[in-house]
Write a structure and sequence with these properties.
Largest sheet: 4 strands, mixed
Mean pLDDT: 87
Strand order of the largest sheet: 1-4-3-2
Number of strands: 4
Length: 246
C-alpha cells in the first residue's frame, strides 16, 4: 500500500467549472420526490456503496445534508474519538485483525454523525482493504474521492471570494491532506470564511500559495444559544495508506 490518493483526474472537470453551492436549488431539488436529486433516494444509493453516483450527485448529497435534521455540526462525536484512538494504535503495514474490526465498528458509528467525513471514509476503506474485503474497500474509497471532489468543485480556495464550502471544520483539513498539503493553524477572517495557512507553501497554477480559504457558514446556522465553540483535534488521515486503484 502506498501513501497516495488517486483523485487528480477525478477533480479536473469539477475544478474547471467550480461554482459555489446554490442553496435554493439544492433545497428544492433534494426535497422534491420527483427530482433525480431527491435526498432519501440519493442517500439510499450512497449508503449502499453505489459507485455510479457522480460528483454532481455528491454535491447534492453533501450540501443537501445541511438541510437535514440529523446535521448537527456542533455536537460532539465520541465515536470519532474512539475511532481515532483505535487508528492511532494500528501498525498500518501489519495491523491486527481485532484492531481492524474495532476500527470498522467505531468508524461505522462515527459516520452516523458525520457521514461525509473524508478521514472516516478513508479509514474505513483502509480497514476493509486490510481485511481483504475489496468490495467495501472500493465503495468507501469511491465515497472519499467524490466527497473531496464535491467540496473542491465549489471554489479554488485561493482567495476569500472563491472559498471551498465545508459542512465541518475538519473537512477542510481533510481536503488539504488529500492533496498532499500540510495545514497549519486556521484563523477566522470573516463571519463566513476561515483561512488555513500551509506549513509549506506550494506552487499552484504558477503561483505561490501560502494558504487556502474555506466557507464555514453552514456550521453556525443553527448554533444553540450560548454555545461556546471548541475546535476538535485534527487527524492527518493519510498516515494510513489506502490502496491504489488502477
Amino acid at each position: 500500500m502506498k501513501r497516495l490518493f488517486r483523485i487528480a483526474a477525478l477533480l479536473l472537470p469539477a475544478l474547471a467549472a467550480a461554482q459555489a453551492p446554490d442553496e435554493e436549488a439544492i433545497f428544492d431539488r433534494t426535497t422534491q420526490a420527483s427530482s433525480p436529486y431527491y435526498y432519501p433516494n440519493l442517500l439510499i444509493r450512497y449508503n449502499a456503496g453505489d459507485t455510479t453516483l457522480t460528483v454532481d450527485d455528491y454535491r447534492y448529497l453533501y450540501y443537501g445534508y445541511a438541510f437535514r435534521d440529523e446535521y448537527k455540526p456542533l455536537s460532539t462525536n465520541d465515536d470519532l474519538d474512539r475511532t481515532l484512538l483505535v487508528a492511532a494504535r494500528l501498525d498500518p503495514d501489519k495491523p491486527r485483525v481485532e484492531d481492524l474490526e474495532a476500527l470498522i465498528m467505531s468508524g461505522t458509528a462515527a459516520l452516523e454523525r458525520d457521514p461525509f467525513s473524508p478521514k472516516l471514509l478513508n479509514l474505513m476503506a483502509y480497514a476493509y482493504g486490510a481485511l481483504g474485503n475489496k468490495e467495501q474497500e472500493t465503495a468507501y474509497y469511491d465515497r472519499m474521492q467524490k466527497v473531496v471532489a464535491a467540496i473542491k468543485s465549489t471554489g479554488d480556495a485561493l482567495t476569500q471570494r472563491t472559498p471551498q464550502h465545508i459542512l465541518m471544520f475538519d473537512h477542510a483539513l481533510d481536503v488539504m491532506t488529500a492533496d498532499g498539503l500540510i495545514p497549519g493553524k486556521s484563523r477566522i477572517v470573516s463571519r463566513t470564511t476561515e483561512y488555513v495557512p500551509l506549513l509549506e507553501a506550494k506552487q499552484i497554477d504558477g503561483r505561490k500559495v501560502k494558504g487556502l480559504y474555506f466557507d464555514y457558514s453552514r456550521i453556525y446556522r443553527n448554533k444553540p444559544e450560548g454555545y461556546t465553540f471548541k475546535r476538535e483535534r485534527t487527524w492527518q488521515f493519510n498516515n494510513l495508506k489506502p490502496r491504489e486503484y488502477k
